[in-house]
Structure formats: structure tokens, C-alpha cells
Amino acid sequence: MKVEEILDSIYKIMEDEDFHEGVKRAVQNSTAAVARILSSDQMIQELAGELREKKEAVLSDISHYLELTMKGIEKVNGRAYLAKTPEDARQIIADIVGTRKKIVVCSKSMVIEELEIEKHLRGLNHEVWGTDLGQFLVELSGDKPMHGIVPALHLTKEAAANLLAHRVGFDLQGGETIEEIVQQVRAFLREKFSRAEVGISGCNCIAADSGAVFLVENEGNIRLTTALPPIHIAVVGVEKIMPTMVDSFKTVIVQSAFAGLYPPTYVSLIAGPSSTADIEYYRVYGANGPQELHVIFVDNGRLEAIEHPILKDQLLCIRCGRCQMECPVWGAAANIWGGPVYGGPMGINWTAITLGENYAAPFSLFCLGCGRCDVVCPLEIPLSEILHYLKGKIE
Ligand code: SF4
After folding, report:
1. From ligand 1's centre to the CA of 126, what distance in Å?
2. Which of 35, 180, 244, 324 is deepest in the core (most CB within 10 A)?
3. Which residue has its alpha carbon closest to ligand 1 atom 8?
4. 234 and 341, same domain (yes or no)
5. pTM, entire model
């Protein structure tokens, strides 16, 4: 996009009062929640301090850690793949899902968005449902996710009810409470979960010592997506590897706390397809949960960025979204500012990694350089420095 087009889109969204009200309420609530969590639990800040070192160790020896993690997955009867490009990832997933029309349920994941997996599978005639409430609403509205953890934070409850009534025929007149709206979505999606043949999730982090996938959430949709269908596919950016399961637990604690959603309702650790050893202590895979686990590691610019003197720091990101909530420009435009998938300070940097510096550069021009994002980031990523570097790439 050209600078003028970005400016137009920011001005346009700033005139949308409902959008503004939705973002404002979300920022206020999230900021207050994070402050409350951090002030009441000193341990979280200490854990955050440990993560940077662990992540740097992995990134500085990524080939070794990637190999170790992939071997760990195979050891517990999972299948591991490395996709260099989005096309590679889409092809691997399409091959696993197969050609017969299937119901596919997906949990919310920015890497799934990045690779356009849902769109691709719909194009292959599969019935695909996003199962996170925010993701479900964003798909119905046709908007891009406005935040990695709260994708529909720009929608008021009236806007949500209106979408659900008109796009999927829910019995909602507009005066319902949020609880009543959520109950109707629950009934609708439960039916999809029970019939789905494939569940696709992202991954908050993955442990190199075991190949265990970690997923953190509150809604329960990830549990159902990863446990009910016979096939589970996890899509993982290569930067999500942590050395051990203990490090991974620390990561999900820090991520949920800095997202203002601590303690998280659920943390799932998935090491292989479901299994049982209840007869003769002989372990058999494919019990009550999925019979197949496929873990797809995604490069899409990440491995090159590891070697980059400036962009490499963004790979430390645990996608808590805290920097976005603190950014005054993001507060005005949310993810409208940042690129086709990601948005805000971290998002522009991720756009540079996944789509190239030239693509991301015009967005960086709107960064005010206030540095508030740097101060709140639990991994101490110098976001504004990376943005400043990108400004120098504007042609
Ligand atoms: S850059 Fe830092 S604050 Fe922003 S999402 Fe990543 S870890 Fe969180």
C-alpha cells in the first residue's frame, strides 16, 4: 500500500464511532487487567525476565532445536513437517485433509491467518468454521482480526448481534445481553465440533525436549478443536520453539498475564495423538481423542530474519498483544494499521518478516516513536527501533 492509501484508511476508521468505542473499551479493560495481574503477582515479571534468554538460545541454534523438536513429535507418533512458504503449508494441509468434503474446525491463530489456510480449504470445497467467538465474528464481518487475542474487539455487542442474526440466522433482535449472545454461539458451534473430521490449531509454544504443543485459552474451543476430531493439525511458527516443557509453561503464563487474561482457563499440552496403555501396559495410539497429530512448522521469512541484525529481535515475540494496547496510533486505528494480517507496532514488524521490508515500510511511517511499546513488552523487544529502521526503507 502507498502512504496516502494507509493515511486514508486510518482517517476513515477514525470516523467510525462504533469502532472507536469498541477499541477504547478493550484498551481500558485490558490495561487495567494487566496492571492488576502484574501488581498482585511478582513471579510473572521474574518469569518474563527468564524467557528472553531461553528464546535467544533457541534462535541462535535454530536448526538444532528444530530437528530436536521434530524428532520429539515423531517419537510420540506425531508427524512433523517444515513448510518453507505459505504455499507449501497450504499444500501439506490440503493433502492431510484430503479431497472428500469435510467439516474442518479451526482455533484462532495468527499464523493460520498469515497462511490463509481457512480460505484455501474453503476454496477446496471443505466446510470450515473458526471457533473462537471473536474469530467467528470477524469471519462473518469480513474484517481482518483487530488483535491477536481479541480479534473482534472493535465490535460492540449490538454489532455482534446484528452480524449473527443476519449472517447465520441467529434469533437475536439486538437487545440481548452478551451472555445470551454467547449461549447461541455455543449451541451453534458445538454442533460443528461434534461433526468435524479435522481440527486445526495454532500453537503458543512447543517444547524441544518432547515435541509437546502448548495452547492457552479461555473459551474451551481449542480443547474441542484439538480433542474431538480424529485428525489434529497444529501450525507452528519456527520461532515458537522453547527448550523444555518447563520453559513452555512459563511462556504461556507470561503470555496470558500480559494479555490481561490470567489465570487462563485452560492450558493444553499435546504430545502425540491420543493413546492408552490400559491393556497389558502396551501403549496404543488413537484412543478417545485424535488418531493423528500433524505438526507443521512454518518458515515464511522467519529463518532469514534470524540472521537479520534488526528484525531478529521481533522473533522473540510471544504475541501477548500488550504493545498494541499501549500504542496511541493502534488505539486510533487498531489492526487497520499494519498490513494484511498483523497490525500495530509488533504487527508491522511481523509484516516485514513475512511479507518483506518494502511491504511493511510505509506502515512504519505512522509510528510516533514514543517508545511506549518498548517499555511494556515483556520480552523487552526494541519495537520502536525496528520501526525506525523500517522507516529508512520507504522508497
Ligand atoms: S512485541 Fe512484546 S508486547 Fe508486543 S506482542 Fe510481542 S511480546 Fe507482546
Report:
1. 34
2. 324
3. 320
4. no
5. 0.95
